[in-house]
Design brief:
Length: about 220
C-alpha cells in the first residue's frame, strides 16, 4: 500500500480538502473536494458564535455545542468515506494536515461573545478543531501549521527552493483543472508536509483544541 495524507484549509462551515500521495519526491493529487461541515448552509450555522451572541448565554452555549457536534460528525463521515475509497485504490490514508489561523488562545464563552474580533476567531477555530477531532477518530496523525509560517517551513522540510515549490504546486492544479485556488494549494502543501513529518511531531490524541471555548 502507498501512503497518502489529507490536507485541509477550513472556512466557516466548510473546508477545502486535498488527498495527496508522494512517490520519489513527486506529489500526486488523489482527490479534491469541498466538504460542508454543517447540514444547513446558512449564516446561522456557518457563524455559530455570531448566532450565539443573539441568544441567552445558556442557549448560546448549547447552540455552539450542537454545531460543533454536527461538524465533527460530518467531517468524520467524509474522511472515513475517503479513507475507504483510497484503500480500494491501493493507498493507506494515515496522516492529515491542517492549515491554522493565528492559533490565538480563546477565553471562556462570555468573554468571546463580548468581543467581535474573538467571535470571528472562535467561529473559524470551531471548524478547524472539528476536523482535527474527526481525523483522530479515523486514526490519522495530524500535522498543523499556521498559514503565515507555511511558506518558510515548507521549502526547508521538502528541500525545494521556494520558487520551485510554488511552481510544482501550481502545475498540479493545471493538470487537474479548476478549482485550484489558494485553498487547494495550501491544503496540498500541508498534506505534503504531513507525509514528510516525523510521527513524534504529529498529533495523536482525540481532544478539543485549546483554542476552542464553550464555557
Amino acid at each position: 500500500m502507498k501512503s497518502a495524507a489529507l490536507g485541509f484549509r477550513a472556512h466557516s462551515g466548510w473546508t477545502a480538502l486535498v488527498a495527496l500521495s508522494v512517490s520519489k519526491g513527486v506529489p500526486c493529487v488523489l482527490a479534491r473536494q469541498r466538504i460542508h461541515l454543517i447540514q444547513t448552509f446558512t449564516y446561522r450555522f456557518r457563524q455559530p458564535y455570531h448566532t450565539a451572541k443573539t441568544m441567552p448565554l445558556d442557549e448560546g452555549r448549547d447552540f455552539v455545542a450542537g454545531v460543533r457536534t454536527q461538524a465533527r460528525d460530518l467531517a468524520y463521515r467524509a474522511i472515513c468515506e475517503l479513507q475507504e475509497s483510497l484503500h480500494a485504490q491501493g493507498y493507506r490514508l494515515m496522516r492529515s494536515g491542517l492549515v491554522l489561523a493565528s492559533g490565538r488562545p480563546l477565553p471562556n464563552l462570555p468573554d468571546i461573545l463580548a468581543s467581535h474580533a474573538l467571535i470571528h476567531t472562535a467561529d473559524g477555530e470551531l471548524f478547524r478543531e472539528s476536523l482535527l477531532h474527526a481525523c483522530a477518530r479515523c486514526g490519522l496523525l495530524s500535522k498543523t501549521a499556521k498559514e503565515r509560517d507555511l511558506r518558510d517551513e515548507a521549502p526547508e522540510m521538502l528541500r525545494l527552493r521556494p520558487d520551485d515549490l510554488t511552481r510544482r504546486i501550481a502545475e498540479l492544479g493545471r493538470s487537474l483543472g479548476p478549482p485550484w485556488s489558494q485553498d487547494e494549494k495550501l491544503a496540498t502543501l500541508v498534506a505534503w508536509l504531513a507525509l514528510r513529518s516525523k510521527p513524534s511531531s504529529l498529533r495523536r490524541s482525540r481532544r478539543a483544541a485549546r483554542t476552542t471555548a464553550t464555557s
